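Structure ticket #2291
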Amino acid sequence: MGIDLPLVWAIIILFGVMMYVVMDGFDLGIGILFTLVDAKEDRDVMMNTVAPVWDGNETWLVLGGAGLLVAFPLAYSVILTAFYLPLILMLIGLVFRGVAFEFRFKVPAGKRRIWDKSFAGGSILATFCQGLTLGAFLDGVPMRNSEFSGGALDWLTPFSVFVGLGLLVAYALLGSTWLVMKTGGPLQQRMRRASHVLSLALLAVIGIISVWTPLAHPAIAQRWFSLPNMLWFSPVPVLVLAATFYLRKSLRNPSSHALPFVLTLALVFLGYSGLGISLWPYVIPPSTSIWDAAGPPQSLGFALVGALFIIPIILVYTAWSYWVFRGKVRPGEGYH
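Resolution: structure written out below.
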């Protein structure tokens, strides 16, 4: 029996996107939290917690995009055409925050505020546009003759805007719990308080999206409440409530540093798994499956050899960088 190459590539792309959400999520979340912190010393500490690793985090975004182009060229062309504007704005936001990240450490102290605002603004823009794209993707992409047949602003809907705002909350919670793990003193206490508020906000976001999605999309409702998908999906709400409960409990424990971040990762993974159950196996919802959009088997097989070679290397150097720069970051310490 031959290898199901479209399925293998779908798993690789889903894994790459999940790694990006997890690893660049707290990075973007720190930029979002810049709006809550005024002290220069605290902002320096916040940036220094991700300074050694932030470049590598976006490798997974490149892997996901390149994998989509190689494995599902039809989906790549349709999705980029449908979401051209929000994706361009997302890239602009990522460029702004990347430039600001480097420049704020090199300019005179009096001009640092400009780059702080650029870092925060770029992080908010990139995150919001990712959420816009995700919400519009869930809404479905109209096609005719294997081409996008919608309008330039079809992605701008109340649902997609809400998902964009919800992703801001999710990334901010990732950022705040990351700072609980990586910092100490008053900044850590402030992030504990922020995480309490953000955890409730994220739970509300998940609840609203969980109700809104099946009401607005009958096809997704059918997928949720039919067997065997219902069996896969039924534990997710219970696990979300349990993870939120233990997250809030761990935030009240002064000796708990890493657990809040781990539990937030669990919440993000549960949300991601719910998204996967809602869409599977459609790479262009509501009707184009991974097998319909897959490229030629020869292309998928050839590219898979390279992917199986490069992905372990990415995992090893990522794990090594996080291991080397483990531990708390204190005021006055830095990598610039």
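Closing remark: Residues 37 and 239 are 32 Å apart (CA to CA).
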